[in-house]
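Rotation project, supervised by the postdoc (A.L.). Task for the rotation student: set up a whole-complex structure prediction and record inputs and outputs verbatim in this book. Inputs entered:
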Amino acid sequence: KAGVTQTPRYLIKTRGQQVTLSCSPISGHRSVSWYQQTPGQGLQFLFEYFSETQRNKGNFPGRFSGRQFSNSRSEMNVSTLELGDSALYLCASSWTSDYYEQYFGPGTRLTVT
Amino acid sequence: KNEVEQSPQNLTAQEGEFITINCSYSVGISALHWLQQHPGGGIVSLFMLSSGKKKHGRLIATINIQEKHSSLHITASHPRDSAVYICAVRNTETSGSRLTFGEGTQLTVNP
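Outputs recorded:
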């Protein structure tokens, strides 16, 4: 069974631009969570989607948004990029939303210049 | 104070040594995860537990719900165990898969 895939793996953007990251969960998994990892703040929860609905949202500004499609693939979007958005963005999928192990993708490393 | 605290932050060991990493949390939880992150970023889920003890190969994870404490043990450590180990909890007050993470423990095992 293929693992969680994320595209692109690396991305360089300029301040003010917007970016879209993609996550394809393990086949059959319906929950996708997104996390941001930075050296200063560590790993932080961004949001979770389950059956195309946002179930949870972390403490991030409205510039961070996401969606999930009917095939469970998910995208996250960051508008008006700031230097502080430079981070590793990880997604994780699980069978359902509760009490199941999460499987992480390799991450997308975003650099904002 | 962070909801999830790990110790130590850094750990250096010699090959073959027994290693313990500790995690304390301050909230009610439905599950606790131990994760491993290698250089390059990829995260692997090692254990998910809500009570007792789990073992996988040389890795053992325990949790004491009453004391709000979990430990990850590595027996007969090997240089390939060098990685960052992260404790994460699922808070009972939030629904879904939302995890809160500790700061991680950087483990280096020397040959």
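Student's summary: Chain A touches chain B through 28 residues (CB under 8 Å).
Supervisor addendum: Residues 29 and 86 of chain A are 28 Å apart (CA to CA).
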